Amino acid sequence: MLDLDRKLNRRTFLKGLGLGLLAAxxxxxxxxxxxxxxxxxxxxxxxxxxxxxxxxxxxxxxxAKEINEAGGVLGRKIRLAVRDDQTSPQAAKLAxxxxxxxxxxVAIVGEFLDxxxxxxxxxxxxxxxxxxxxxxxxxxxxxxxxxxxxNYKYYFRAMFNTDTLTRDxxxxxxxxxxxxLGLKKIGLLLExxxxxxxxxxFLEERLPALGLxxxxxxxxxxxxxxxxxxxxxxxxxxxxxxxxxxYNDGINFVNLWYLTKCPIRVxxxxxxxxxxxxxxxxxxxxxxxxxxxxxxxxxxxTEKTLPFYQSYIQTYRLRPVRPLYTAYSxxxxxxxLSEAIERAGRADDPDLLVAELEKTDYIxxxxxxxxxxxxxxxxxxxxxxxxxxxxxxxxxQADVGGKGKREVVYPPQYRTSPYIPxxxxxxxx
Amino acid sequence: MGHxxxxxxxxxxxxxxxxxxxxxxxxxIFHPQRGDPWITAFILANYLAxxxxxxxILSGFTGQISFGQAFFIGAASYSGGLANVTLGWPISISIxxxxxxxxxxxxxxxxxxxxxxxxxxxxxxLFLPILAVKLVSIERFARITGGGLGKAGLTPLAAVxxxxxxxxxxxxxxxxxxxxxxxQQIDYYYSLGLLIFVAALLLWLARSKVGKIFEAIRExxxxxxxxxxxTAKYKILAFLISAGVAxxxxxxxxxxWRSLVPSEMLSLDLSLKVIIAAVxxxxxxILGPVLGAYFLTIGKEALGRAMPFxxxxxxxxxxxxxxxxxxxxxxxxxxxxxHLALSWRGRGEETGTWP
Amino acid sequence: xxxxxxxxxxxxxxxxxxxxxFTLVFGVARVFNLAHGAFLMVGAYAAYxxxxxxxxxxxxxxxxxxAFTALFAALVYRGFIRYFIFxxxxxxxxxxxxxxxxxxxxxxxxxxxxxxxxxxxFLEGAAPLFGAQVPxxxxxxxxxxxxxxxxxxxxxxxxxxxKAILATAQDRTGAALVGIEPERVYLLTFTVSGALAAIAGxxxxxxxxxxxxxxxxxxxxxxxxxxxxxxxxxxxxxxxAHLVGFLETWTIYTPAxxxxxxxxxxxxLLLVVLMLRPQGLFGxxxxxx
Lengths: 429, 355, 289
Fold this sequence. Notes:
Shape of chain A: globular
Oligomer: heterotrimer
Number of strands of chain A: 14
Helix content of chain C: 55-70%
Number of helices of chain A: 16
């Protein structure tokens, strides 16, 4: 902080900024940066109207509480500054600026929608603002890090990107769909947008090489009637479909799939479908669907998974009552961040902080978190692999009381149950 | 005597208003060194004012009520923005291109809709931006248009380099905030320049012979026709000017945001916001819509900051308040805020009303 | 093709129901009621409040919601729209703003909010029809829509109140001369249009999620249909609803187009018709030129 004062006094910004300084300089120094001396402001940016966004905030709150109870970071208590991105790129930009300018945050965690995240990248570079993405998944952000490291190196991600998710889908298709269940015809039901198209390009190339046929159908973000898409896949004789839902809540899809007893098994990504409430939202019609997740209460991936889960469900009574993936990733991200700040010895030097973040080797709630180096096509994404972090494929099953439970069916090391097909389809073998 | 002092007062008031706006980023209530969200609000107000004025010259003056101003704004944003981001054309070309595209579309819409009256024209234009959103969202063209998610990476209007003011070579957060503040200032002056340019242009036009004919068409088209004036020519001219001005604003707007987002730049909500601003301020007055845009944007920021953000209510509640206000104005003060203000001073001018 | 025909017939019946209420109001009261979509939203959310929040069964919920919306529409006319009919543009603006106002109210009211909500289905399961699996709910929606159309037709033709509606639509002054009170007729028309909108709203959303923006799409669709068919013409709306329904469905199933083209063909058709024949396919020349 002394450094700032020195700069303020000596710097020639009178030259550039003129009149206003005289009156406002004092007030500015007095408020934001004095406050910052006692507390360590960290920004949380997420769509607060969505369950994933609420989960993001709660993951951050739990981590901040833990860190503060253990004495804080460099002796300073973390103060979370939460902003709503309103799922709009423009609103997110204004919120980002507000966090940096008014709250004086030293780093930001969060985000969910791809188009919002990508529109924040210029701001991350412009403010050299360390940002740990805990919810979006497009690889375009890491490609920016790879192409223009000096500008974009402040961006990290503690979540799966579409590349790892799709590669893991390929693994799932090979091991579970082809080898274990003996299926041959695969359909892709993808949300329109960048990640849907990336997924289509990758899987349409890879799955045929595994001896699987592929039929692809896209649906618009706001699609409500999935009749035509299901009919198309059914006409193609598809046995299992890989789906991708992020923006669309998928409930209309699930309802129609169940009501028409659609003979197609469902696997894939459905961000809203990971919420515990999804079972009730769909009146149990989501039964047998398998969705990728970072962690579940069913498996102790590390010694931190279940304690975090417990403290989440004890702290929060309102929807979402169980943590979504963003809660795990944001909780881990805040710990990674605070450890990096400790190692750096100061919070206000973004370049130093980035250097320390790059050294991260942290056992989190979802596995061992290490960031990719510049040798990877996706630098600053978390390393993918059995010794690091892999997606867990979680199936919705009905328990004895008719309530929903979530069991891991793949990969084998986390498996808690075999795959159970929908009630109207024959069991495997 | 009274009349004379009123004119002096008016001149004084206008000079003061322009002076305040010109010096706004330096006013001590803001934080000029590190930028200020309030200045962003003023930037947004300036753009909305430009859009609202573009609506006014068409709808307020000639009485051809358009519900689709977002169509022209978005068309210019998209054509200029895409040329900039996909073809790499510089701002000096992309902005004129956007304006040109908007004018062409104005011609394309203005001529066939000539014979439509009243609510019918409003409804056709209401559908235009909806059509445009659907067009850019088509999956097949998404590689070019960015699809429903839009496209980022436009050249910014303002890009101050750090080396321009950082003498000691060491970069810290303060330098970055200073740069942000400078960029914000430049963005602000671009928007203010645009506002003043458009306001001056349209005020001049409104007071010229053309403006009088526009108003006469609104009041009684048959009479104007009977006087031997080709009303079709003037109605199309109004369409072109309106589209061109909206396009000018839209082309700058895209570069200000540095991204194209169909749900925001081509939305029904933007069309409505433009109308709300213009009707709120006072139709057919050019400056009324400016007042309305400021009232709307600055008011929203003030309301948003007065309430705790964590409730996530302000966005919803403030919209609610402004819609309710629009309804009140529609019902009780058809001539808008500017007329209220003028009549309060005891000398209300005859301003535009429903054709 | 069988699939396309079945799907388009099912959806067209609901479109017809939405549009007929809209066109009726225009034909009788000469009001461009852009709040019609909002009636649909109110109907669906009223059903949700009874069904989802109070836990009543969906049939009672639907009945209550339809009655509520009919009353609501009448109140909106009496307490709101009536004050904004002094100029057609003002009516359009005010009713559009009113819809937005209602949408925002739903967003900020805590038990509703912006998250998607769901109604219970009327009937579980699906039935095979011409090679397509059709949810039974949609078949019910189809039947109810046609029954409503028939009931409306009989009401207008045979009942005293219905004849008054018809008389007012044809000749306002004449109707007033024979002692028909126009204000009462308008009120009745709004009530009927509210009830029809609520029925459509409930069936329209019984297999899809409710969000506060659900009034927009129906508003646009019903608008397109009504203009296509000719303002004020019930038969025109019926035909245009099927035209639009078929176009939309055909677009989805056509491989070269697909779901992201939905809405475009009917919008383009609408614009072309408006420019070439503003009175619509079945309309009488009036006001447009």
